[in-house]
Amino acid sequence: DAKTTQPTSMDCAEGRAANLPCNHSTISGNEYVYWYRQIHSQGPQYIIHGLKNNETNEMASLIITEDRKSSTLILPHATLRDTAVYYCIVMAYGQNFVFGPGTRLSVLP
Amino acid sequence: GAVVSQHPSRVICKSGTSVKIECRSLDFQATTMFWYRQFPKQSLMLMATSNEGSKATYEQGVEKDKFLINHASLTLSTLTVTSAHPEDSSFYICSASGGQINEQFFGPGTRLTVL
Asked: With an 8 Å Cβ cutoff, are B101 and A87 in contact?
């Protein structure tokens, strides 16, 4: 079973920031938070991952709460091409990915 | 990020035939490769994990004699669906890991339709 809980779906206006929440209240100290997304009929695409500190790359920012029980993926300026299913995965080194149902993000024009 | 390719991208076959799907890591050496299956409107389900040169580890409920996995080199893994049936129709996705901190790179997927 997935160790995370995400909203089933979200809408976001094009050009605005998309904030995707993820709850992982049972996360262990050695488990990382990974985010992937899957555009329709394609393989998942890596977005970002983190352990404790907030992370930022060219695609997104990852904000992890101090108690690490939840996190938020931020797409700063969503475009129509960001419409996808976003998966939040919690995993320690050596474990396998367990994909939950994810959040279906629809970016609206 | 690293690039993983799959071939073919889609395949249609008759019931009872076998189908081979290739997964290649194009610009890195993949010590571990993973095979997933995804049915319509569902999430990815891990089928098996393979390390180069050793036998694959299958998830519970996945028949190892039906889904043959070979990981003969650090850049190639193959999944053969033997005696395919319509219920095997699905989207098959591979991923590869180069031993970095669990980061997996996914292929574009192969859509299998068994008639």
From this structure: no
